[in-house]
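Me: Here is a favour to ask of a fellow structure person. Could you put it straight underneath, so I can go through it closely?

Assistant:
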Amino acid sequence: MQFDKLIRERDGHIVWLTLNRPEALNALHSELMAELRTAVEDAAADADVRVVVIRGAGKAWGAGADLKEQKQNLGDRNATRRFFMKWHATLDAIDRCPKIVIAAVHGYCFAGSLELMMSCDLAIATEDARIGDQHMNFGLPPMGSATQRLPRLIGIRRAKELLLSGDWLTGIEAERLGLVNKVVPPDDFDEAVAAYARKFAEKNPAAAGQIKLLVNNGMQADLHTGIRFEEMIALTGTAGGEQGVEAFNKKEKPVF
């Protein structure tokens, strides 16, 4: 499938998805979100894909939802409902994707783009990235999942502070809070992202999908229910697991 607002590239086990609206700082509108959902679902169904990297073209990861589209939807509840159905369907596709999804963040990462970043499994950012919610600065509450995702990542008090103030963080500050996993100097960003993606692409894809499923579902359950989930996975087995154990016993690095 050809995309209009998204660039899809393939490098071995890694799929690179580039949000391609640089003239609008990659503001997220319905067409782009629909294309992103399709690309993620395609990657989920491809047995040879292990990692998906989402990045932004131009100067930013993303400035949030497209306010021009939002303005057109004002007062039209059906249009607003359709927009958020597409929005949440895209983030849900990332949540459900059995592949490791990495957000590669540079420049601005505000509001809806922050919500997109938080739906990814991992995030790597430039040290000077600007990351925050911003909704409060326009007198609005978040409507795309920030109030639910942010506390799960950085804790309730920190999340409330960031959401209520409308402040933004640098990449370095976001890493300290656990909002991103890794930060690098801007000049090293592309190389660092590629190395980061390759690191995870070397892992057993079956185990990676199971870990993602266990963590995501375990967050919605109590401790003991989550442990039962692990037991169920142990009983059903993990493709490639025997290969990994055999390599360990031989003191070799497993190749999956």
About this structure: The longest strand covers residues 6-11. The longest helix spans residues 77-96. The beta strands are 6-11, 14-19, 51-56, 100-105, 108-110, 122-126, 130-132, 168-170, 182-184. The domain at 6-201 is CATH 3.90.226.10 (2-enoyl-CoA Hydratase; Chain A, domain 1).
